[in-house]
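Example (one chain per record):
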Amino acid sequence: MANQRRIDPLQVLVEIAVITVGIVLAYQLNTMRETNKTAEAERKVLREIKSNLELDLIDLDQNILAHQNALLLIDSVKEWSGAYEPHIGEMFFRIFRDYLFLPQTSAFETLKSKGVDLITNDSIRIKTQRLYDFYYQIMIKYESEYKANQLFDDFEWLVIKYYRTFPIRRSEQPIPKSKSTDWLDDDELTTRMDIAQHEHSYALRSYQLVKSEINKLIDIINQELEIE
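Predicted structure:
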């Protein structure tokens, strides 16, 4: 009968240990790769969100300036004295113009598709969701659905009542039905301008609030990305 090979228990233990260590190391390496991949995906989304927010600030600043100018024009019309001048029509066009905030949401939509938990920083995640799902939604609904804010309806009323023609092209001057400026004291016109004044002022306060929230979010994203 052939001699059986003697099994060395120590050698078996060593082989098992080597295999186990290899498996553990492979698992840890794979985990590290997945962690790094997830972390990079998070940083990419944060950079994209920051870029979108910076574009939103530009949009907000332009609208803020337009609302501020509208308020100045309202004061000018209310204090108007003297003969009619064609540029009064342009002033009314700016007073009764609707301005819309159109936020950039592509990065946030990407985040939602990947899962908001991709953002590990609780503060950033909460502020991001609150900005897009609360502040932005309120602003959009106010501008697009709130009837009192639809100021262009007042401009159309003004044109029909006081102008024979009101061309859109600036090279052509609007022609009023009367050269007298007495109609500037019309109670209904005054009421409509008062409403416009209130809506422009409210929009300014809302824009400043949203702008403040955007800047706060950008600041903490910069801290997370270690950007000075």
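Caption: Strands lie at 163-165, 175-176.
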